[in-house]
Specification:
alpha+beta; two-stranded parallel sheet; 2 helices; 2 strands; about 10% strand
Length: about 80
């Protein structure tokens, strides 16, 4: 998923858009040409961590007021 998100972010950036990536974890090197912000998320379960991240994201969005948001989520297990 991170690879797909990076490809989309880089394509948007090549088309002149300002891209900022917000995530709760990041694996590997961060790209130099993209702004990556790891938001805090804590909790004993996946559900609690997701809720914590959603709260942090909502707070960031209120503070920064971006014009557009494109969200990627993990696929649900089958």
């Amino acid at each position: 998923m991170q690879r797909d998100m990076l490809a989309t972010a880089q394509l948007c950036q090549q088309r002149g858009h300002k891209v900022q990536i917000l995530c709760h974890t990041w694996s590997g090197e961060r790209p130099d040409n993209l702004d990556v912000t790891v938001l805090p998320s804590s909790g004993a379960s996946n559900h609690a961590r997701a809720r914590s991240f959603a709260t942090a994201f909502a707070s960031w969005r209120r503070d920064h007021r971006p014009k557009t948001c494109l969200l990627y989520t993990s696929p649900s297990p089958r």
